[in-house]
Amino acid sequence: MNFLHTDKEVHEAVGGKITKNNWAVTGVSIDSRTILKGELFIAIKAERDGHEFLKSAIHNGAVAAIVNRIPMDTPRDFPCIVVKDSFRALNDLAHFSRKRYKGKLVAVTGSVGKTSTKSLLAEMLSKFGKTYCSPQSYNNYLGVPLTLVNIPLDTKYVVSEIGMNSPGEIEPLSNLVAPDIGIITNISSAHLAAFNDIKDIACEKAMICSGLVKNGFLIFSSETPFTEMIIGMAKKKKIRYATFGCHSSDQIYMKTVSLKKNRTSVNVIIKDFANLNFDLHVLGIHHALNSLTVLGALLDLNLDLNVAVNHMKDWKPVTGRGRFIDLKFNKNSKNILIRVIDESYNSNPTSLKASFEVVRYVSFDDYQSHNVKPFRRIAILGDMLELGLEEKKIHKDIAQLDIINCFDLIHCVGALMKCLHQDLPSGKKGLAVRNPRELIPHLLKNIEDGDVYLIKGSNLVGLSLLVSELCGLNDRKISR
Question: Does 374 sit behind a cis peptide bond, omega within 30 degrees of 0 on the bond before it?
């Protein structure tokens, strides 16, 4: 068994009183429901008190725990380290793990595209050595240290996602992560509820610079608002930087991009170094832009870009972040093929417009034997959350976008999306419902061969339920 931390290492990192020696752990968890056999459980007091779930963690395989107090029902021989503050202990262990790690670490932040960029970068880095990245969206004050404490010992590359919901979050996380390379995917109006304006968001995102190592490298979009402020911060930190984008002045320059046959073809010029052509087997200019940051990071790590571009086509978006799901089933004795674009995990004005562009270019060209032309484009849109005082106007303004005309029907889910529904052209108005479940009977009754469904909303809206319901139709016979 490959152990990650010994009792001595953990105790030296976090301090406190150890009740039993001679143990080692294969990983670290703060969730008793998902903890794996052999892991260390850290009882954090957050929305719920982790100490109440220590017994459950032990039952599920925890071999030791860090606690503020030992619950009464804890087995007497179970190893614990008792500390004053278990959250501080998590960060102390994360600091130890980062200091121990001798490979290269890339940190990704931004208003949109963090998770997709992290996923694409990790997949490309894996072609050059063992790579570890933040699980799911582990990008906050708990997720970032959890990423660090679980870095496998033989890892060559790490990709950490750093997010924020309010001011002052990124700087301490960047300092903890101490990245060799920092990426800012973009800056937009996401999280406006916690900030005065876009400038404040830009200032917060720029704090990724604070933890960059000596002679570190920052990559950011030339389209980012307040670029001069970001450059000023980079110069103050004495780190190197490069911009990416669609301008010939960018160091990483996307000269051309085309969307066809459900692929994105890209020509990229990296100044004084390379002219690269490659395909992404996903649709979206936003994915192409994300790939520019990946190329910039790989170049700074002195890795072979030709190897990377040959594998770009193999990457697929993670669940809920734009993945295409094709479903075949039989309805009323008729064979049906539909395509679901699963964007159910997140939504804000910038990512919504990018998803609309994907729908504009989507096709069934990869199913040449299946006659699905013409086909319907149907949007199921859930509330965009954390947009602040202008949230109703922001939702309402979507109806003024020209690209709305490419949809045949738009369903709206949630109180904020009702503002959009009221202003939609009458011919495009679908249902306006409070929650996703209310939409299910209508979808099942009216689904047609060749339908393309864009399902997009903030995660808390719960549109993943609709994705699951539609996926449940696959290879089935239904009668409605």
Answer: yes
Which two tokens mark 167?
Answer: 């001011």
Tens of pLDDT, residue by residue over 234-254, are: 999 999 999 999 999 999 999
Q: Is the pTM of this model over 0.90?
A: yes
Exposure b/e, 392-402, CB count within 10 A at least 16 = b: eebbbebbeee
Instruction: Report the mean per-residue pLDDT for the chain.
Output: 94
Given a contact cutoff of 8 angstroms between Cβ atoms, the answer to whether 208 and 184 are in contact is: yes
Length of the chain: 480
Q: From 3.50.30.10, 1.20.810.10, 3.40.1390.10, 3.30.1370.10, which CATH number describes the 5-86 domain?
A: 3.40.1390.10
425: left (phi over 0), alpha (psi -120 to 50) or beta: beta
- CA neighbours closer than 13 Å in the CB half-sphere of residue 404: 20
Are residues 414 and 461 in contact, defined by beta-carbon separation less than 8 angstroms?
yes
Tokens of 332: 């009323």
* C-beta pairs of 141-144 under 8 Å, 24+ apart in sequence: 141/169, 141/172, 141/173, 142/30, 142/44, 142/46, 142/90, 144/94, 144/173, 144/176, 144/177
Angle at which helices 349-361 and 285-300 pack, to 10 degrees? 110
